[in-house]
Amino acid sequence: MKFKALFISATILFPGLLFAKGNITGKVVNKSTGEPMDFVTIQLMDSNGKPLPIGTSTDENGEFIITNVKDGKYIVKVSNIGSVDQERPVEIAGNNAEIGNIILVDDAKLLQEVVVEGIRSQMRFELDRKVFSVDASVTAAGTSASELLESIPSVEVDQDGEVSLRGNSSVTIWINGKESGLTADNRAQILEQIPAETIDRIEVITNPSAKYSPEGTAGIINIILKKDRRAGYYGSAEISADSRGGGNAGVNINYSSGKFDAFAGLGFRMRRNKGGSRMKREFSDGTYTNSEGESPNRGNNVFFRLGGTYHMTDKDDISLNGFGMFGHNKSHSTTDYVSNVPGNWLTNHNYSRRRGDMRGMHAELGYTHKWTDTHLIDITGSFNHWGGPNWNSYEQDMLYPDNEKDLLYQEQTMDMGSKSWEVKADYTNQLTPWLKLETGYNGNFSKEDTPTDTYTGTTPDDIIQDTKLYNRFIYKNNINALYATLGGTVKKFSFSAGLRAEQWNIRTRSLAYGVTESMVPEFKKNNFALFPSAFLSLSLPYDNEMQINYTRRLRRPWGGQLNSFHDISDPTNISYGNPELQPQYSNSFELNYLKTWTWHMISVSAYLRTTSDMMNRISFLDGDVMYSTWANVADETNSGCEIVLKDNFFKIIDLTTTVNLYNNHISAWKYNFLADSGNIVPLSGDKQDSFAWSIRAMAGFKLPWSLSLQATGNYNSKMLSAQGSRQGGWSVDLGVRKNFGNWSVALNCRDLFDSRRFKSTTTGPDYTQFNERWRGGRTLRLTIKYSFGNMKQKQNKNTEGEPSDASGYGDMDM
Asked: Residue 261, SS3?
């Protein structure tokens, strides 16, 4: 087997020896401030100065890379509005060409003539991900992370704050490249409380390599908080208010010197919202149960972040950073039911109240050692703690046909607690000019402990503890992973192949009243799986690129999905978990095509994802009670195409359009459910195919007088599920921003036409149920921001005291 593996590896890698690498890299820095310059235009020309159809722009760190350049002599032209253009001769001869730092000099005359401020594109493409810049988004001002995600192509956020990617809710969300304690139980709350102004960018990785966690069959959304290394000190303060009585206030500051970098941020967020619901349940015999409800809610929270990096030597860095939040939320809802089902009540007035606290933090210690820029090891350890007490009450006033009334009152307390440790060690080594090795370890050890206590009576004055409804759920999940990837670029080809091995064990206990941990044996599950990945990219003439990749991924059941405890906070809709729920595995294939011109770009991604033992939330009716639980039913095949068009018209309009076309196939399935009454409820579904599509357009306009205008429109078509469908919907957001030197004022309108409604249909053996839910609605928000700082250039012996050079070559720091 060893010789066979070596032979296969040699067969894959040997063709790479026949080609040469040709990447051009560099970094652009401002002469007077020492700051990296992003969105600077990089143009490749031949040795005679003739422009070639090859180019790129710098990222937020001022860095750029032009990949797969043929052997030969070239000129790299660097240009930016308000700066003197720079040119660098470069030669590709079978290896990389690293230009180093290119320092741009401000053109004083040109700066005086520039009266229209440029706009930055919100989205850029990297090898394995799409990156969305938050500062470039006018409509992001004053929003939360949850609202911000709604504006990103291919990402959806439903009325409960749950996130999906390309129509798939099995998506992993990270903060700064780590899980940071986010789970399916708490992430909706956490994302709602993170201010958008603390976020630098959001990365969407639809088919991650073996280096990354395989969790989330749809991919990974990585939220990167602001942390910069520009020399000197700088920061911003921001305040906003909206038409619903909510608002934000925050301040962020950064400091960087030769030996030490630090950042800090503090924000306060006040939320005011109002939602509602509508339900129509029709039975096959013509009877019905309908409801109308409204649910206003409010909350306040403080979000903070703090960290620093100490550069011990030129090769060693040590860092300590973290973030956290604490806050309070409360809501109430009023729902009125009417029914003509025989033996059931005629009307049912429900009034519920909820209040809770969210407290949490993430702390991280890191160490990096660099032998060279391409040979390094990065080690981090982090601790996360999220939780807080929650309380809710539920009151029912039921009227029966004989005018008899029945009152029911319940209170429920839940003290949520989640802790986790995460350890990462990543090793990178550029073995040869065309081959790079990445390998490492990732461990994640988490525990949830959530006791729930219920009190029942007819009014708040006569309630007593209902010991039958007490539950304490303890959930432990320990994951250990090793990975290795080999990748590189050989002339026109880029490749990567990797393998990740994960072992995880799940331990759960569901404790009744008066029962201790020692009295109940743990429910145990041990799992092991391999997750391979493979990427191959080919650069074609005239700035065309093709890429094909494959990954294996999974969706693990989380704590609440495994808890058999019945949640009766709404006695007419009871939900519970399934301890026997199994993980679902997916095989994902993608074929990508990318074509760029000077002012335009098109990306086409065709994908195929096959999933076995699909986890689904299933509902069934027993009497007048609707039950919801989780089960592995059916297999699923998703195929689709994502088309992204980026266009710049007349240098004043930046338009990004994303179209998603996808087909979903679900196999036929049968499942028997045991209701609380003891009845066996058989459910089944025929195989089904559904086609759905969505389109999202983001348009940015640069206007005179330092004005920026941005509009985002979104439409999603109808989509089928295992037990029904989700109806289509649309929305429009609009924003405008005006800059006054260090000040800026933004006015935006979220859901301009008040159209964000979530509609779905569920079918069962003898009923059909239609649901409509909404939250928020049209919201106007005004944001004022002030930027401050004293950014200074880091001097060195070659440039200190020298005058500005406007010759066209400037300074070059190799």
From this structure: strand
The three-state DSSP-derived secondary structure of 626-677 is EEEEEEECCCEEEEEEEEEEEEEECCCEEEEEEEEEEEEEECCEEEEEECCC
Residue range 443-473, pLDDT digits in tens:
999 999 989 898 999 999 999 998 888 889 9
The C-alpha atoms of residue 777 and residue 788 are separated, in whole angstroms, by 34
Residue 393 clears pLDDT 50, i.e. is over it: yes
Phi and psi at residue 138, to the nearest 5°: -70, -40
Q: Alpha-carbon distance 145 to 305, whole Å?
A: 15
768, two tokens = 């059909």
Instruction: Classify burial at 286, counting beta carbons within 10 Å of its beta carbon; exposed 0-12, middle 13-18, buried 19 or more.
Output: exposed
Q: What is the DSSP-derived secondary structure letter of residue 563?
A: -
- Of the pLDDT bands very low, low, confident and very high (cuts 50, 70, 90), residue 730 is very high
Q: CA 107 → CA 32, 163, 810, distances in Å?
A: 11, 46, 12
CB 254 within 8 A of CB 263: yes
Instruction: Report whether 330 contacts 296 (CB < 8 A).
Output: no
Q: What is the torsional sign of CA 171, 174, 177, 178?
A: negative
Using pLDDT thresholds of 50, 70 and 90, give the confidence band for residue 675: confident
Q: Which residues of 740-755 are buried (b: 16+ CB within 10 A; e: fewer)?
A: eeeebebbbbbbbeee
Do β-strands 625-632 and 573-575 pair in parallel, antiparallel, or remain unpaired? parallel
- At residue 290, the pLDDT reads 96
Q: What is the mean pLDDT of residues 564-572?
A: 72
* Cα(151)–Cα(734) distance, integer angstroms: 11
Least confident of 121-125, 150-154, 604-608, 637-641: 121-125
pLDDT at 256: 80
Q: Residue 18: is its pLDDT beyond 70?
A: no
Q: What is the DSSP letter of 190?
A: H
Q: What angle do CA 37, 40, 44 make, to 5 degrees?
A: 135
pLDDT, tens digit, 9 for 90 and up, residues 752-795:
999 988 899 988 878 899 999 988 889 999 999 998 876 443 33
Q: Is 109's pLDDT higher than 60?
A: no
Half-sphere exposure of 181 (CA within 13 A, CB side): 28
Nearest CA-CA partner of 350 in 323, 363, 332, 375: 332
pLDDT for position 672: 83
Residue 245 is given by DSSP the state S
Q: Which of 188, 296, 302 is nearest to 244 (CA)?
A: 296
pTM of the model: 0.75
Number of C-beta neighbours around residue 670 at 10 A: 10
What 3-state class would DSSP assign to 368? strand
What's the rounded Cα separation, in Å, for the pair 621 and 525?
30
Half-sphere exposure of 802 (CA within 13 A, CB side): 15
Highest mean pLDDT pick, 69-78, 593-602, 709-718: 709-718
Q: What DSSP string describes 128-169?
A: TEEEEESTT-GGGTT-BHHHHHHTSTTEEE-TT--EEETTBS
DSSP output for 545-604: EEEEEEEEEEE---HHHH----B-SSTTEEE---TTPPPEEEEEEEEEEEEE-SSEEEEE
CA angle 504, 166, 609 (to 5 degrees): 60
What values do phi and psi take at 16, rounded to 5? Answer: -65, -25
> How far are the Cα atoms of 630, 633, 637, 722 from residue 685, in angstroms, in the given order?
15, 9, 16, 7
Query: Which residue has 């050890």 as its token pair?
Result: 445
CA 255 – CA 270 distance, rounded (Å)? 28
Give the C-alpha distances (Å, rounded to integers) separating 167 from 150, 163, 171, 662, 691: 13, 9, 10, 9, 12
Instruction: State the distance between the two ends of the chain, measured CA to CA, in whole angstroms.
Output: 47
The mean pLDDT of 401-418, rounded to a whole number, is 89
Query: Is residue 382's pLDDT more than 90?
Result: yes
The CA angle 763-765-768, to the nearest 5 degrees, is 30
Q: Is the pLDDT of residue 230 over 70?
A: no
Residue bearing tokens 């005018």: 403
